[in-house]
Structures are given as C-alpha cells and as structure tokens.
Amino acid sequence: MPASPFLKATTPALVALLIGLLLILCTTPSPAHAAYETSGAIGTMHTSLGGKAGKLGPATGPQRCTLIQKGCYQSFKHGSIHWTKATGAHATWGAIRTAWKKSGWERGTLGYPTSNEYRSGSEVRQKFQHGMIVWMAKSGAKVKLTKSAKAPSSFAITGSGFGHGVGMSQYGARGMAAAGKTSTQILQHYYTGAKVTTMTKNADTDLKVQLLTGKKSVTVTPRSGRLRVAVGSKTVESGSKISIERTSSGMIKAKIGSQSYSGSKIVVEWQGTRYWKGSSATTVSVSGAQNGATGTYRHGRLEISQLKSTLNVINVLGLNKEYLPGIAEMPASWQSEALRSQAIASRTYAYRNLGAAKPACGCHVYDEVASQRFLGWTHENASDSGPWRRAVAATQTTSGSTVKSARVVTYKGSLIDAVYSSSAGNKTHSAAEVWGSSVPYLVSVDDSPSKYASAKNPNASWSVTIKQADMARAFGLADVRSLSVSKTGSGLVKTVKATSVKGKTISRTGDQLRTKLKLKSASFNVK
Fold first, then answer.
1. What does the DSSP assignment read for 236-272?
2. C-alpha–C-alpha distance, residues 256 and 229, integer Å
3. Are 425 and 178 contacting, i.e. CB atoms less than 8 angstroms apart?
4. 439: closest CA among 113, 174, 170, 166?
C-alpha cells in the first residue's frame, strides 16, 4: 500500500528531527559522569594523568573531604585520587589499588599514598606513608611495610548514644515530651506500626521478680514490724533478723532466734502487706540484693528456693500496683509524658514476660538491666519519686485496691517486646541489626529528639581514648597498627578489623568491641 500524502509530506521533517536527537544523545555525556567537576590538587593530578581521556577516566562522584587526617578523595571510572595536606594528591588504580583497598585504605597499615605508580626494573611500585605496594607480572601486588611502621600509643573513639539503641530512646522521649508530644505519640514513633491501647487482662496479676541468686546464705531483716516465716508445715514469727542458708544436704535452713527450721522452700511475709494485713507498714531488707548491696522492699512476699545449688530469692508482687512504682529506669524529674511513656513501655515489657516462670531464674523478670531495673521501696519511697508514681497511676484505672485496666503497646493486637535504651544517636537501630532477627515494630527510626537541647542528653556525643595495650587485648593481637570500621545504615558498627604491624588481621563485631572496651554504645568512629 502506498504511503499516505500526510506521511509523504512530513517524512523529511521527521528525519531531520531524529538526526537532531541522535546528535544530542551522542554529544551529551552520560549522567554518571557529566555533573562531577574536579578542582584543587585533585583536579591538578587528574589533569596531569590525561583528564577524562587519561588513565583514570571521568569522575564518577564529587570530591569528598570526610576521611581521617582531614583527607579528601574523588572517585573516577578507573581509580581514585586521595589527598591530605601532609601527603599531597596521588592516584591509585588497578591491582595496586585493589591491594591498598584490602589493606584497609587510608585507615589500614599503609596509610595514604605518597606517590603515584612508577616503574623500577620489572616491578611497578607505589609508595605509601608506612610502606609500599610492589606489583610484578608473576606474583601480583604485594604489600611491604617499612620498618618505621609502628603501632600508635592510643586510639581516639568518638560515638553517640548509650545502650543497644533498639526501640524507645529514653532521652528521645524526653526531647519529644519537651516539644509537646504525648506518651502515645512518643511510643508510636519509636515502635513502628504499634498502637497504645488499654487492656484489662493481667491488670491485677502477680509478677515474680528475681532479687538474688548465686549465694549460699542471705539475711532478711524487718523494720518497724514483724516477719512470718513458713517452712514446710511450720509458720514462725519474728521481730528481728532471720538468717537463711542452703545446707550441704541440699535443704534450705532458716535460723529464727535460737531455733532452726529446714525445708525445700521458705516463704517470708511481713506485716502491712496484702498477705498479712495490719496497721504496721513493715519493710524488709535483703542482704546481697541490688548487685551485692542491700535491697529494701515494702510489697509482696519472698519465696526462697534453690537454683543451681545456691539460694534463689524471688519477690512476688502485684505487677501494676507494687512492681511498677519500684522501677528505676527514668529520672522522676522528667516531663510527665516522658514518664508515662516509660511506665507504659515497662508495663508492656513485664506483661509480655508473664506466663510460666523462666527455668533459668524461676522468675518472670530479673531486677536488673537483663530485664529492667527494679529498686523496690528504695525508689518508690524516694523523696522525689512522686512524679513517677503519678505517671504509673495515670496509665491505669483502679477500683478500690484492684487495678481494672492499664495502657500497653500492641502490634496487630499482640503485646510488643517493648525494649528500650538510653539513646541511640541520630537513628535507633533495628532488631535485625543488633540481634540478627527482624521484628516489624523494631526498625530504625529518627532519634534526633535525643539530641535536642531540651533532652539534656550527656551521651548525645562522647569520646574516649583507648590505650594500645587495651585495644590489642580486645583483638587478641600483639599490637594494633590500624582499624577499619564498617557500619549499617543506622550508624551501628557491624565489624571492626584490626591489623597488626606485621599485617595480621582480626575482626570483631561492634557489639563485641563495645563489651570488651566498655564503650557506651556500638555507634562510634575510630581515629
């Protein structure tokens, strides 16, 4: 079929348009290379190597000055140029550049390049601050350190945040509360997709808190009242200290006055509690509780049994009315909405741990940071604890002495694992980053509120100096010449590779190094 008159008339114009478009496409650089200029010493070095048509080719990124020793670099199609004031600008490419990368770049044993590649007989060489890389056709690229390459006397570490950095940031909650956010807004910000809701289930249930284990003996002392001790079928009262120990025969013996009573389990109650009602408001002291000090308790009762051939002291408490007021995880002087967010998170954490007691402790939760810090009457009765008690009360409803309902955090109708830490830095970390398992509501979110001036966060940024001997010990090396750090998207250190003067390398996870060096968090940089 012949072409239509319209197509015949417009064909030359279409051809001209297509040719014009082809000319534009052929003469316009690709977006990957067109927008990046070179300048300064890096630009001069690039020009000396032939510019875009030379050894390195066109730039593939902008010049960045974010390296150690205030160094700058720019990437090109076939290599890169690095610059510092001390070393000048030098290019790396090919096999020598690959070997330098494997050594840890500028943070590795070699440091920055101090020359470009040059030939020496059958070898191609390039000098660096602490040695050189030599390439030969038969053997490839080899690193050779100079004798002057020494391990530094110390390392400067700068970081941000305190704790694991997953879930609610406590200083972030403080910053958000100061900015006018409610406890619901705070919690739903840090627990992605979760909801703050009111639950009636478990509102008046009991919680078992481990106060002490690992000891062969313990003393329980009443203050302003009397104790009632149940051993087997016997119940004995005392107005003074009682001593309890595990015997060599595997029984538990209570010494009350001049008498001793033995059994497989001992229960201690005191006046003024729901177990022994009366006018006397008695408290008891438990030796060795609170990390080896002495704990003071007003509520509940003690159940003392055996665990791994030692005593196991459990405080049985009403979760909402007796346990939560003794939680010491946030200063009571903070804003009421921050305190309420902590109360709801702490309650949710405790609710989730209800059910059968853990075999490892015979408890639901521990009294320290393995769960959450419980100081009992010491915290609840402190002169400045009123705002905390009011925050707890404001997040639950009561009828007489019975708690009817309380606010918790849920995800798709189920209680969340309401973990929290002091602060994370710029971003919180996901559960996958820290613990290796993804949790939909424990993902990385903005933690900039923890750096607000109103948050008054002492760990918004921190720095420590680590001695050479301590760093070497942390890696199990004779010495550490350099460290190379890799991070996740939220700024959490994934791995740190240490290289010794002799070139031996060992890697640690960020959390491992945090533990070994007692760092505040695993969000840090090393200089």
1. EEESS-EEEEE-TTS-EEEEETTEEEEES-EEEEETT
2. 9
3. no
4. 166
**In 69-219, where does DSSP find H-type helix?**
94-102, 170-178, 183-190
Q: From the CB of residue 476, how many other CB atoms can be counted at a distance below 10 Å?
A: 11
Question: pTM (2 decimals)?
Answer: 0.75
DSSP sequence for 191-224:
STT-EEEEE-TTTT-EEEEEEEEEESEEEEEEES
67 closest CA partner among 130, 116, 111:
111
Residue 325 identity (one-letter amino acid): P
- Sign of dihedral through CA atoms 427, 428, 434, 436? negative
pLDDT digits (tens, 9 = 90+) for 140-189: 999 988 866 678 899 999 999 999 999 999 999 999 999 999 999 999 99
- Say which residue the tokens 């921050």 belong to: 338
